[in-house]
Write a structure and sequence with these properties.
The chain has two domains: 134 residues; 191 residues, Up-down Bundle (Rhomboid-like fold), CATH 1.20.1540. 51% of the residues lie in helices and 12% in strands. It has 14 helices and eight strands. The chain has a six-stranded mixed sheet, covered by helices on one side. A two-stranded parallel sheet has the order 7-8. Strand 2 and strand 3 form a beta hairpin. Helix 10 crosses helix 13. The protein starts with a helix and ends with a strand. GO terms for molecular function: serine-type endopeptidase activity. One of its GO terms (cellular component) is membrane.
Length: 342
């Protein structure tokens, strides 16, 4: 596959150069955009870091790196990914290709999938414009900036803003305030206020409940957002929150609120993501996720005020959503009456 890919580039006007660092450099006809290709050994002892000599490639404004992994993809690889370069990991063992970080242009992803599945005998481009679309290298392309998890920041800001308004309105632990701001109340949902399945995810019962969930979102959110991309990440978060509250509505009559159903959805999506990649799973990510999920579910059993039905609903929603979107994500109240979800 490595040699075939090089031949495709060569046949379409790319200049191929071999470096002493085992990277193969491909320069487009304009001389302003470059691809760096690496055939990664099975023992994973080599680093992924890519830094072409500036003197030799001073005219290159935008780099993308393609790593061909004969024995699968390991999470340790991602630690070596430098900022400013879009990486594509081609898992030859599983026939998958996935980007890191999530790319802005997924045209290259579709072509990778077709090559990996053997559905194209010839390269899917001919004209110059088509070739640039295939490579995701548009004339206006500029170097990838450092990834900013803007959706995570926006969610955190929204949750803090809601908590501040609840505090100003009388306090987030007061039942009247919880109901007014959209907590999950089964009787009101039955009357048609189904929007509470969404709004309950932005409401928290007390400062410690807020702090716990914000910390979890701050730790998990940026990593998940970088893997899945901004919009898919947001959909998983919101729909998992709704799924978790729906589960709570079906199985728990208590008033409840909190972002942890959505956070469990992110954990479920990450669990599916790592399970689909054996090397990533065996690297420890999968086991770590299972431990985190198990510990939090056990806490929910020990502490009856925690809404474990929402946790389980969010977790299952995240797993299902990640499975459904796999084609796009990878290539190939206070007291006993109020349940909260720390």
């Amino acid at each position: 596959m490595f040699e075939y890919f090089l031949s495709v580039l060569g046949q379409n006007g790319w200049k191929i150069e071999f470096t002493a660092e085992k990277w193969v450099i491909a320069l487009d006809e304009s001389g302003h955009r470059g691809l760096a290709l690496l055939r990664y050994p099975a023992d994973y002892r080599e680093e992924i870091g890519f830094a072409p000599p500036k003197s030799a490639y001073a005219g290159i404004r935008y780099w993308q790196a393609i790593v061909f992994c004969s024995a699968g993809v390991d999470s340790q690889m991602l630690k070596k990914v430098p900022a400013g370069t879009q990486f594509w990991f081609w898992d030859l063992a599983q026939g998958n290709v996935f980007p890191f970080p999530a790319p802005r242009d997924r045209g290259m992803v579709a072509w990778f999938r077709q090559i990996a599945e053997g559905t194209y005998a010839e390269p899917p481009f001919g004209r110059e414009s088509a070739k640039r679309t295939f490579l995701g290298l548009h004339s206006s392309a500029s170097p990838e900036a450092k990834f900013v998890p803007v959706v995570t920041y926006a969610l955190i800001a929204a949750i803090i803003a809601v908590f501040a308004l609840m505090t100003w309105a009388g306090g987030s632990t007061h039942m009247a305030v919880l109901v007014a701001f959209g907590a999950k109340v089964d009787s009101l949902i039955r009357e048609g206020q189904i929007w509470r399945l969404l709004t309950a995810n932005f409401i928290h019962i007390g400062f410690f409940h807020l702090a716990f969930n914000l910390y979890a979102l701050w730790v998990i959110g940026p990593f998940a957002e970088k893997l899945f991309g901004h919009w898919v990440y947001l959909l998983i978060y919101l729909l998992s929150g709704i799924g978790g509250n729906l589960s709570s509505y079906l199985f728990s009559p208590a008033v409840s609120a909190g972002a942890s159903a959505a956070i469990f959805g992110l954990l479920g999506a990450l669990l599916f993501y790592s399970w689909r990649r054996p090397q990533l799973w065996r690297s420890g990510l999968g086991i770590n996720l299972i431990v985190i999920i198990a510990v939090n579910l056990i806490l929910g059993i020990i502490q009856p005020e925690i809404d474990n039905f929402a946790h389980l609903g969010g977790l299952m929603s995240g797993l299902i959503l990640a499975a459904l979107s796999h084609t796009f994500l990878s290539v190939r109240g206070a007291g006993s009456a109020n349940n909260h979800r720390p």
